[in-house]
Structure formats: structure tokens, C-alpha cells
């Protein structure tokens, strides 16, 4: 047995860390014949050098032997590392039998610039703002001799690509990440080890606009689309002039340090990217390319000296998340001409990303010829692209323009924007294009995919596929609503879609960044906006607790999924302020939220009272805050929140529950689901409420009728109370509104609304993904972090088999079932450190075997449900054979 996958802040060997007391995690790898079941203790050593650590000289920290079963969430308790310092660490542990592992292989973390005084660089930019995006460069000399390390720390606003000696320094996109620039500005750390050469070198960066320079000077309606209905004022702190700050540090073997920093000695020139807008697209003139602009020997003819710029208000902060990168290359499935002389390129799937234009053998006489590319999700009746789903019908066009350079082979792709698209309409292509002239690229945050779902039902698999694709297409620096119309961090999806994401991806580091966005956005009175960062303030859609309450609900979900209280500890003060804000607002109305603007958003049945949806969320938020107070050792505060929660529960039931009929609200599906999900329904009324909900679903012809808020709560409430059979009928309903309707219509991503109008790539209705793994396959948690697992599958008639893998901090959980005429066969894998309680549906007399051995001690856990037993680490084949 050994310890593997060592991580710091849930990242492997992070570079440029901000937190000087990060958390550690690891996993156990145990051979098949070992009897070890769980960890009983651990010991961590940390040192300032690998050599010292290997000698056992833990000059940074030695925890000693610490009792504990968790192999995660262990906070570094040693001396505070200095800026730039690398700390090496290793771990050993003991199992439940007292056996000790060897020391693990060493991992490390390296600090960023922790103090403001560490920055010698200054923010620089242009003398005046122009449409063309600028290139900045600096020539410097590296001396002969040993280079111990080279680090570049930097940030370019709105966006920046960094180059060294003519080559881009990484494969990441859209750096730095979106943030509330009034509070936080993210910088990145690059390792340039082995990339510098003795003698002359050139460091450069290319600035793009992004969200930060998204204000009137580059606002070009009606020519280009721009999201504006909630636009913030220019001096809000969210927007500003293009600027960059970079600091290269070279550490030599003789102890000397060379720093190359941004200042007025840097030079800049207008680049060939003559227009760039985060929403409307980019225009690139190949004739204006400056050959070798970031290489030694480049002419400085039209270059000017940079000027120092006013820094943004926010603090420069290192970001600890995976980057945004390319995850899929798309080859067109077809190219064809249309009546207006343009061509349509079909990439086959809807995506979030960009296209690449590939030209061969261009000639000087073609120089200056303009090619315009219009991306879109759908085609119109005239055969061309229809951008309505990308612009919500607002004025302006989304397009990318390329002017041919005329010097042979040319390739171009947008640099500082991305689109939501499946189709490209191409105008002005020289000759007849083919599939070889275009490629598409899909991007997302590179959160590791660690879970999966599959089934024998082709429709279920197709629904999972389009839902998964939409989730991934919106995994950007925020969890966006969509990759075209808004690209904003509407907060309800982070809450409602949390388990749909965490069951398939490791989102621990990413959620930490999103929480910071939420906390940065909180107002002095406790209010949290519906969007964070609040680049847009859409005043008519800004006030609803299922959005703002993510400050409490997401950290709690994080704790349940990962067993780490870190986000709850950070969020708790904000949770308290937000609860106080809601309490003050609702006290005159006896804790009913009458003034919310969004209830069950996107509902097919619009009768559900918004006040009911919002007030149930209010109860849920206060309940979670009370449980958090208990967890954090604050019993007095917990009791205060429990008292408030009971007042809310009483008021909701008095206002919206009709005892004579048992109906909540309007009697819609969401009217029953929201109180059940939140825990508002009195215990004695739960069976009746569940039954009335089921009757309402049947009355709707087994159709769903909710929006995004009610849908999560509908699926969860039905499944929680043993009615996943009803969820299955909803999910597989063939007619609108339904997921199957999307599949039948050829959707490759999840549309925003059930009528398939507007955006074709929203994740907000994707709650079915959580149900697939958690309830259909049956992998759920009984304790946080899946320390205790419940296996309780749903076995719909007509589905032959299903399989899911779900990640946990202890390791991967896997369960598969296959039903047939002879019985039910299951395969279970339980990771080290956990236990799984298995409950299987049963009809009549059946013989139970586990790993080929008959098991006679199983007992019934309820009508039609067999308690097979509790299983520790290992693989198990479970067979229920019909008599």
C-alpha cells in the first residue's frame, strides 16, 4: 500500500500560490490482497528543499503522528513561507490495522508574490486608447552561467497573451480570469525555466479588451453585438483602459537576481488585431502583421514608449485553478453554398470556442481581400445563419473578419473572444472552400473529468451527452449562463447545478474562485447580486434568493461533496450578512419574500407564486446557515438561526399551504416540489404532499412543467421520497416540454427554454445529470465526502443496464446494474476509507450472492427493498437471481 496523487489546494504542484497555509490531500493505493479498510493516522513533513526533505530534515513543518481518517483537507501548519519560496512535502499514514506506509513521493507548492512591496513592476499602457489591440515588448540580456529558476508574474487587462522570443509562453486562454476588479485582480505565474537563452531575449505581451475594456470607446452598435441591458458605468471600477503589469525574475547560481519589469522603457505598437469585442467578435488585418515583433532584431520604426497607467482598484492576487484550454478539435461535417453567394460550414456540434480559417497558396494580388465569418447556433429559413439565439434579437452582428495577407499559407483564429456556435456563414472566401479550410475548437476550464454515466437506453445517453456538453461549454472563468448572449456568472446555476458538475468533474479549486467572486460582490447591506462579478446590473432581474443565496448553498454543497469546511469558513460571515438582509427585508411581511423578481425562472407552468419559490429558498438558506454554525462551533448562533428558520417555515405554511386540500401555492409541480426540497413541509404532511405532486405530474401527462429552480427540486424531491419511477417517466416523455423533445429536434447542447427559443446552449435545465448518477445509477452519500455511501438504484422497465462512476476525495466510486429475465447483476467498487450501504429493489423470492457466495443475512429495508449489507473497500459482484 502507498499514498499517491498528492495535491496542494486541490492542485498538483501549484505554481504561484496565494494561501500561505494551504490544504493537503492524497489518496491510498492498496493492493487487492491487503486487508486495510481506512486510514487511522497521518504524518506530514515539509521542507524548503527536496534534499532536506529526503534527509528527514523537516525545516518547514513536521506534523508528527496525527489521528485522523480523512486523507484530505489537512491544513499546512508550519512556518509561513516567504514570497516565491517553494516548499516540498511528503506524507506517510497508518491504516486501521496499524500498518504504516512508506513516505510518499514528494510534492511541492511554490508561493507567488505575497506582499505588495514584492512588485517592482508598474502598470503600463498606451498614450491614448485605440480600436487596434496593442503589442508591448522589451529587449533584455541574460548573462552566462547557471540559471536556477526563472519566473514571470503578470496580468494584462482586459486580456493578455504573453510571448518570449517569438513563442507564446503557454496554451492557456483568456488570462486573467474575470473578477470584480474593484476588489481582486488575478495575476498568473509562468515558469520560464529552460526557455531563456544567454544573451539577448525579448519579452512581449499582446493586450486584448475582454470584459475590462468593454465600455463606450469600443462600443460599436449597430454594427456589432454588445450585451448592454445591464451595462455598468465606465467609472464603476469594472472597466478601464488596456494595461499590463509583468515582472520577470531570473535567479542565478551565484545568488544574484535579475528583474525585468514593466515601466516606461517598454515599447508598444498597434497590432494587426484592429478590433476586438468580447461579444461581437474580432477583425484581423493580416497585412498589418509585424514579423518578429517579439524577437531580437525587430525594427522599432513605429514603436512608441509606454506610459504608466493608473492601477485597477483591486488587489493583485494569485489564482489557484486549472486554466482554460482547448478540449476538442472539430472538423466540419459539411460545407455548402447558399443563394447569396456565401458558404455554410457545419461543425456538427454546438460549442463554446472559436473557429480557425486555413488558407493555402495565397498570392500578393489577393492581399487585402476581406473574409467575413458569421458564427451562429442555428440556420434561418433563407439558408444562412440565424444569430437570434446568440444576440436575443438585439441590434448588431457577431462576426470575425480577416483581411488576407497574400504571402502563401495563412491560418487565423480569434484570440481574445469566443463564440457559441455550430455553423459558420462565410463571405468573401477566395474560390470554393472545403472542409480542409476550417476547424473549430471547444474550450473550457480544464477541471479534471473524474466521473461518468452510461446506460443501455440510447435516449438517456443522448440526454446525458447534450447536458454534459452544455455544462462544459459554460465552464469558463465563471460558470456562465451561455457562451453567446451574455457570458455572465448568473449565480443560480452554480448552486442548482453543483452536484451535476461535482459528480463528473473535480471542481474544488474552481469553486474556490467562484466563491471569491460572490464574496467580492456583496454589498455593505448584505445584498448579493444575481450576477458575480457584476459586470451587468440588470435591475429587473437582480433580486431572488435562489441566485443570491448561493453564498450559503454552494459552500454547503461543497462540504457535502468534498468534506472540506474551508469554503464554509470563508463564506460564513457573508452568509450571516445576507440572512440579516433578508430578515430585515421580510420582517414587516412575517418573513415572506414578496419583492423577489425571479421565481421559477423559465417555467412552462407560470402559475407558481414567485413568493413561494423565494420564501422556500429563504428557509433553506437560513437552515444551512444554522447547520454551518453548528459545524463551525457556534451553538448560540446556530440556535438563533434555527429559531428564524422555524418562523419562516410557519409563515410559509400559513401563507401558501391549504390544509383542506393539501395543496401548496397554485398546485403546480414547483408549488409542491419547492417546499418538499427545502424542508418546509411539516413531517406529518410529507406523504400527502408527495402523492399530490405525483398526481400533478400525471395530470400533466407525465410532463415536467417547471423552470430551472423547480426542476432541480422536482427531481430531487421525487427521488428522495422513493418516486424515481416518476422522474424516469418525465425524463423520457417524448413530447414537448421534455428532454427527449430536444434530442428529437437534433440538439447537441441543452437549450435555454423548453420551447427551444433563444439560446441553444444553457446548462440551467441540466439537473437530469445529477439524477442519472445519484438516483438512476444510485450512487449517493450518507455522510459528507461519501465517507458513507448509499447505493440505491432505480430500475426502470425497458432499461437493461446503467453504470456510473462518481469521484470522491477518497477515490472513485463505481456501480453498475444489469437487469434481465433471470434477475439483477451488479458490480460495485468501493474506495479505501469509505463504506457503501447497498439497497436493491426486489420482487418475490430471490437468491442473493456476493462474489459468488450465497448471502443469507440480508434483510428487507422496506416494501420491495432489500438491504444487501454494508461493504468496505473492494470490488463486489452482487447477484439477485430469481427463483
Description:
There is one protein chain. The protein is an alpha+beta fold and about 900 residues long. The chain has five domains: about 1-110, Immunoglobulins (Immunoglobulin-like); about 120-320, Galactose-binding domain-like (Jelly Rolls), CATH 2.60.120.260; about 325-445, Sandwich (Jelly Rolls), CATH 2.60.120; about 450-775, Glycosyltransferase (Alpha/alpha barrel); about 790-880, Maltose phosphorylase, domain 3. Helix content is about 20%, strand content about 30%. The protein contains 17 helices and 48 strands. Helix 12 packs across helix 14. The longest helix is centred in the last third of the chain and has 22 residues, at about 610-630. It is globular and about 85 Å long. The model has no long low-confidence stretch (mean pLDDT about 95).
Task: Give a brief description.
The chain is an alpha+beta fold and 883 residues long. 22% of the residues lie in helices and 31% in strands.
Amino acid at each position: 500500500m502507498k499514498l499517491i496523487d498528492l495535491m496542494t489546494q486541490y492542485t498538483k504542484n501549484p505554481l504561484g500560490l496565494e494561501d500561505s497555509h494551504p490544504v493537503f490531500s492524497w489518496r491510498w493505493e492498496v493492493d487487492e490482497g491487503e486487508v486495510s479498510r481506512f486510514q487511522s493516522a497521518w504524518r506530514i513533513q515539509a521542507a524548503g528543499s527536496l534534499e532536506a526533505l529526503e534527509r528527514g530534515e523537516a525545516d518547514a513543518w513536521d506534523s508528527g503522528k496525527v489521528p485522523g481518517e480523512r486523507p484530505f483537507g489537512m491544513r499546512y501548519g508550519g512556518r509561513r513561507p516567504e514570497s516565491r519560496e517553494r516548499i516540498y512535502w511528503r506524507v506517510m499514514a497508518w491504516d486501521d490495522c496499524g500498518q504504516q506506509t512508506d513516505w510518499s513521493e514528494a510534492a511541492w507548492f511554490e508561493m507567488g508574490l505575497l506582499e505588495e512591496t514584492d512588485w517592482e513592476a508598474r502598470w503600463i499602457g498606451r498614450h491614448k486608447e485605440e480600436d487596434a489591440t496593442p503589442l508591448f515588448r522589451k529587449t533584455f540580456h541574460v548573462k552566462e552561467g547557471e540559471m536556477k529558476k526563472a519566473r514571470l508574474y503578470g496580468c494584462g487587462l482586459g486580456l493578455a497573451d504573453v510571448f518570449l522570443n517569438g513563442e507564446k509562453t503557454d496554451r492557456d486562454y483568456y488570462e486573467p480570469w474575470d473578477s470584480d476588479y474593484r476588489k481582486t485582480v488575478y495575476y498568473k505565474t509562468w515558469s520560464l525555466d529552460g526557455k531563456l537563452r544567454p544573451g539577448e531575449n525579448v519579452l512581449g505581451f499582446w493586450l486584448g479588451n475582454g470584459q475590462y475594456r468593454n465600455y463606450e470607446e469600443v462600443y460599436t452598435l449597430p454594427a456589432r453585438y454588445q450585451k448592454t441591458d445591464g451595462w455598468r458605468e465606465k467609472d464603476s471600477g469594472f472597466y478601464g483602459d488596456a494595461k499590463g503589469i509583468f515582472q520577470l525574475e531570473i535567479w542565478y547560481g551565484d545568488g544574484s537576481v535579475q528583474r525585468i519589469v514593466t515601466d516606461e522603457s517598454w515599447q508598444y505598437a498597434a497590432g494587426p488585431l484592429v478590433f476586438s469585442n468580447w461579444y461581437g467578435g474580432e477583425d484581423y488585418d493580416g497585412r498589418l502583421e509585424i514579423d518578429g515583433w517579439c524577437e531580437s532584431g525587430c525594427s522599432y520604426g513605429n514603436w512608441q514608449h509606454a506610459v504608466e497607467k493608473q492601477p485597477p482598484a483591486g488587489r493583485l492576487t494569485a489564482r489557484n485553478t486549472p486554466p482554460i484550454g482547448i478540449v476538442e478539435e472539430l472538423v466540419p461535417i459539411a460545407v455548402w453554398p447558399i443563394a447569396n453567394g456565401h458558404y455554410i460550414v457545419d461543425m456538427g456540434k454546438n460549442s463554446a470556442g472559436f473557429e480557425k480559417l486555413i488558407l493555402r497558396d495565397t498570392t500578393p494580388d489577393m492581399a487585402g481581400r476581406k473574409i467575413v465569418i458569421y458564427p451562429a447556433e442555428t440556420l434561418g429559413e433563407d439558408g444562412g445563419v440565424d444569430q437570434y439565439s446568440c444576440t436575443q434579437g438585439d441590434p448588431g452582428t457577431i462576426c470575425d473578419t480577416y483581411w488576407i495577407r497574400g504571402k502563401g499559407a495563412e491560418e487565423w483564429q480569434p484570440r481574445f473572444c469566443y463564440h457559441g456556435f455550430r455553423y459558420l456563414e462565410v463571405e468573401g472566401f477566395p474560390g470554393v472552400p472545403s472542409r480542409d479550410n476550417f476547424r473549430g475548437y471547444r474550450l473550457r476550464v480544464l477541471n479534471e473529468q473524474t466521473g461518468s454515466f452510461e446506460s443501455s437506453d440510447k435516449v438517456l445517453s443522448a440526454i446525458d451527452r447534450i447536458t454534459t456538453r452544455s455544462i462544459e461549454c459554460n465552464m469558463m472563468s465563471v460558470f456562465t449562463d451561455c457562451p453567446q448572449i451574455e457570458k455572465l456568472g448568473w449565480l443560480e446555476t452554480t448552486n442548482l447545478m453543483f452536484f451535476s458538475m461535482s459528480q463528473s468533474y473535480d471542481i474544488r479549486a474552481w469553486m474556490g474562485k467562484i466563491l471569491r467572486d460572490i464574496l467580492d460582490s456583496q454589498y455593505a447591506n448584505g445584498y448579493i447580486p444575481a450576477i458575480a462579478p457584476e459586470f451587468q446590473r440588470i435591475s429587473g432581474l437582480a433580486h431572488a434568493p435562489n441566485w443570491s443565496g448561493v453564498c450559503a448553498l454552494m459552500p454547503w454543497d461543497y462540504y457535502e461533496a468534498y468534506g472540506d469546511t474551508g469554503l464554509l469558513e470563508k463564506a460564513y460571515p457573508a452568509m450571516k450578512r445576507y440572512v440579516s438582509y433578508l430578515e430585515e427585508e421580510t420582517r414587516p411581511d412575517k418573513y415572506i419574500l414578496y419583492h423577489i423578481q425571479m421565481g421559477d425562472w423559465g417555467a412552462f407552468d407560470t402559475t407558481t407564486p414567485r413568493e413561494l419559490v423565494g420564501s422556500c429558498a429563504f428557509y433553506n438558506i437560513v437552515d444551512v446557515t444554522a447547520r454551518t454554525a453548528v459545524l463551525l462551533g457556534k451553538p448560540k448562533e446556530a440556535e438563533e438561526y434555527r429559531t428564524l428558520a422555524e418562523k419562516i417555515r410557519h409563515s410559509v405554511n400559513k401563507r401558501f399551504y391549504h390544509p383542506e386540500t393539501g395543496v401548496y401555492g397554485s398546485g403546480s409541480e414547483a408549488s409542491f416540489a419547492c417546499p418538499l426540497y427545502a424542508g418546509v413541509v411539516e413531517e406529518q404532511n410529507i406523504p400527502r404532499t408527495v402523492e399530490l405532486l405525483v398526481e400533478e405530474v400525471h395530470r400533466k401527462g407525465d410532463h415536467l412543467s417547471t423552470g430551472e429552480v423547480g426542476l432541480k427540486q422536482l427531481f430531487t424531491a421525487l427521488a428522495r421520497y422513493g418516486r424515481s419511477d416518476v422522474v424516469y417517466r418525465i425524463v423520457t416523455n417524448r413530447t414537448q416540454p421534455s428532454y427527449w423533445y430536444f434530442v428529437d429536434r437534433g440538439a447537441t447542447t441543452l437549450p435555454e427554454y423548453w420551447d427551444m427559443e433563444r439560446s441553444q446552449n444553457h446548462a440551467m435545465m441540466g439537473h437530469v445529470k445529477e439524477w442519472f448518477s445519484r438516483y438512476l445509477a444510485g450512487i449517493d452519500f450518507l455522510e459528507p465526502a461519501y465517507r458513507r455511501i448509499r447505493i440505491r438504484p432505480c430500475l426502470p422497465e425497458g432499461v437493461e443496464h446503467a453504470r456510473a462512476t462518481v469521484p470522491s476525495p477518497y477515490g472513485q466510486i463505481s456501480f453498475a446494474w444489469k437487469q434481465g429475465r433471470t434477475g439483477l447483476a451488479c458490480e460495485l467498487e468501493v474506495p479505501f476509507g469509505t463504506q457503501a450501504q447497498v439497497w436493491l429493489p426486489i420482487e418475490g423470492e430471490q437468491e442473493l450472492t456476493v462474489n459468488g457466495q450465497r448471502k443469507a443475512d440480508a434483510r428487507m429495508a422496506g416494501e420491495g427493498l432489500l438491504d444487501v449489507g454494508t461493504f468496505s473497500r473492494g470490488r463486489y459482484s452482487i447477484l439477485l437471481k430469481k427463483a
